[in-house]
Amino acid sequence: PLKVTKICCLGAGYVGGPTCAVVALKCPHIKVTIVDFNQARIDAWNSPDYNLPIYEPGLEDVVRQARGRNLFFSTNVDQAILEAELIFVSVNTPTKKSGVGAGFAADLNYVELATRQIARVSTSSKIVVEKSTVPCRTAESMRTILEANSKPGCRFDILSNPEFLAEGTAIQDLFAPDRVLIGSLQTPEGKSACESLVEVYNNWVPKQKIFTVGLWSSELSKLAANAMLAQRISSINALSAICEATGANIDEVSNAVGMDSRVGPKFLRASVGFGGSCFQKDILNLVYLSESLHLPEVAAYWRQVVEMNDYQKRRFSKRVVDTLFNTITGKRIAVLGFAFKADTGDTRESAAITLIRDFQAERARISIYDPKVEESQIWQDLQEASPTVPLVDIQKNVTITHSVLEATRDVEAVIIATEWREFKLIDWHAVYAQMSKPAFLFDGRLLVNPDELRQIGFRVSVIGRGETL
Ligand code: NAD
Ligand code: UDX
């Protein structure tokens, strides 16, 4: 198999950036160039003071070690394609907003444009690696496009190598992955290309963790993994509704269930609902795939995972309104956390956005605090969530603050929407002292000890626990 010496990555986002930075760190003999046509993003990756475009614990350290040595960030996409023997395609694949499959199917426009660019520019053979999450059989379409447009003497081998990193722990996940999955055609050429990529990963990942399969299994496994992870959360959240109605405690139920080694304890934490750029998008993608294959029962099964998540968010907002004497009009509410989970500045599909939109619809006054999310991002998300309301009107009722104490001053209720570590260390006595009374606290992340807070004087509502305000 070909020994790879130059790698190019198309897309310098949450996946391409950290993934290929780690490849560069672990493979000093390989030149890695990460390209994007978003100039601002590339400038940030290249910023002298390491003001990187995404926040991810440990990432800065990786970039400091490898940047300028064998890791480069550039907007010169063509040059990087020309040089490379192996190209990762890590471009975005959002849910389609219009046309066939709108609201469900993946928008493969960026993948197709990237593929056509590779075909147009290449003057030598390439291994093209599909890193983006795509519907089953996308590799086949990529191959058709590449072969129909290739120059004489250029051959393209396509691999599928989905990424399983989670945001907030990306570097840890990349350093020690549970597995690396590589799909290829089961032809001698396909297997040889696969071997070349195995050798890249084997610089730091043991062979027994590198799992090689057929192309379509690889593509489907990525959707399946996300669907099954999200399904666990929706299952536990469905049970949290029963707990709230009965007086059972979801923490105890989830521990009891998770102690069964067949189920396992991870990913059973009830919450205000899962967010992030992947779960909903990938499940809807699976739903669309099932429908296209005329498997409506399968489609309905997976769709319910997303519906349960929407229900969980709706249920939480309703509980806030119900508890605050059935009206929050004009009331002040602090929302702690805006990111979709701790340790990331990413807000895509964050439950906080839906909650705040619901509170705005009730004309509450909202103060927000998040330790990492940029202010401009919050305004953009709130505008997108309420497209018919002018931003100036949104800004009349929403303030963005810079600390927990600033956010909670004079408020009637505090909502915990993200499980930031900082929130575990809050001085609740100080918060209570400056709130309107009765002081309400809604924990959407099972973060606080409700008994301790009740002793201070708070009225506390926790996901998955009955009302013992
Ligand atoms: P992102 O939007 O952060 O980054 C994608 C980048 O690709 C953008 O900066 C865009 O400008 C760039 N791009 C688009 N077309 C390009 C082209 N032709 N040439 C160069 N750059 C181009 O997206 P992301 O979160 O990194 O996700 C990328 C893919 O990885 C998606 O398919 C996603 O489903 C998948 N994925 C994401 C995660 C995650 O945690 N975010 C995890 C696993 C898989
Ligand atoms: C997910 C997958 O975990 C990862 O393997 C894949 O590559 C991309 O999608 P990510 O979305 O970054 O990663 O984060 P994840 O840790 O999976 O959390 C997703 C959402 O589920 C978050 O909003 C999180 O708060 C929520 N969650 C997670 C729960 O509500 N309960 C849990 O027990 C776990």
TrEMBL record:
<dbReference type="Pfam" id="PF00984">
    <property type="entry name" value="UDPG_MGDP_dh"/>
</dbReference>
<dbReference type="Pfam" id="PF03721">
    <property type="entry name" value="UDPG_MGDP_dh_N"/>
</dbReference>
<feature type="binding site">
    <location>
        <position position="36"/>
    </location>
    <ligand>
        <name>NAD(+)</name>
    </ligand>
</feature>
<dbReference type="InterPro" id="IPR014027">
    <property type="entry name" value="UDP-Glc/GDP-Man_DH_C"/>
</dbReference>
<comment type="similarity">
    <text>Belongs to the UDP-glucose/GDP-mannose dehydrogenase family.</text>
</comment>
<feature type="binding site">
    <location>
        <position position="348"/>
    </location>
    <ligand>
        <name>NAD(+)</name>
    </ligand>
</feature>
<comment type="pathway">
    <text>Nucleotide-sugar biosynthesis; UDP-alpha-D-glucuronate biosynthesis; UDP-alpha-D-glucuronate from UDP-alpha-D-glucose: step 1/1.</text>
</comment>
<dbReference type="GO" id="GO:0005634">
    <property type="term" value="C:nucleus"/>
</dbReference>
<protein>
    <recommendedName>
        <fullName>UDP-glucose 6-dehydrogenase</fullName>
        <ecNumber>1.1.1.22</ecNumber>
    </recommendedName>
</protein>
<feature type="active site" description="Nucleophile">
    <location>
        <position position="278"/>
    </location>
</feature>
<dbReference type="GO" id="GO:0006024">
    <property type="term" value="P:glycosaminoglycan biosynthetic process"/>
</dbReference>
<feature type="binding site">
    <location>
        <position position="167"/>
    </location>
    <ligand>
        <name>NAD(+)</name>
    </ligand>
</feature>
<dbReference type="InterPro" id="IPR014026">
    <property type="entry name" value="UDP-Glc/GDP-Man_DH_dimer"/>
</dbReference>
<keyword id="KW-0520">NAD</keyword>
<feature type="binding site">
    <location>
        <begin position="11"/>
        <end position="16"/>
    </location>
    <ligand>
        <name>NAD(+)</name>
    </ligand>
</feature>
<dbReference type="InterPro" id="IPR008927">
    <property type="entry name" value="6-PGluconate_DH-like_C_sf"/>
</dbReference>
<dbReference type="InterPro" id="IPR036291">
    <property type="entry name" value="NAD(P)-bd_dom_sf"/>
</dbReference>
<dbReference type="InterPro" id="IPR028356">
    <property type="entry name" value="UDPglc_DH_euk"/>
</dbReference>
<dbReference type="GO" id="GO:0051287">
    <property type="term" value="F:NAD binding"/>
</dbReference>
<feature type="binding site">
    <location>
        <begin position="91"/>
        <end position="95"/>
    </location>
    <ligand>
        <name>NAD(+)</name>
    </ligand>
</feature>
<dbReference type="GO" id="GO:0003979">
    <property type="term" value="F:UDP-glucose 6-dehydrogenase activity"/>
</dbReference>
<dbReference type="InterPro" id="IPR036220">
    <property type="entry name" value="UDP-Glc/GDP-Man_DH_C_sf"/>
</dbReference>
<feature type="binding site">
    <location>
        <position position="41"/>
    </location>
    <ligand>
        <name>NAD(+)</name>
    </ligand>
</feature>
<feature type="binding site">
    <location>
        <begin position="278"/>
        <end position="281"/>
    </location>
    <ligand>
        <name>NAD(+)</name>
    </ligand>
</feature>
<dbReference type="Pfam" id="PF03720">
    <property type="entry name" value="UDPG_MGDP_dh_C"/>
</dbReference>
<keyword id="KW-0560">Oxidoreductase</keyword>
<dbReference type="InterPro" id="IPR017476">
    <property type="entry name" value="UDP-Glc/GDP-Man"/>
</dbReference>
<feature type="binding site">
    <location>
        <begin position="132"/>
        <end position="133"/>
    </location>
    <ligand>
        <name>NAD(+)</name>
    </ligand>
</feature>
<feature type="domain" description="UDP-glucose/GDP-mannose dehydrogenase C-terminal">
    <location>
        <begin position="334"/>
        <end position="450"/>
    </location>
</feature>
<dbReference type="InterPro" id="IPR001732">
    <property type="entry name" value="UDP-Glc/GDP-Man_DH_N"/>
</dbReference>
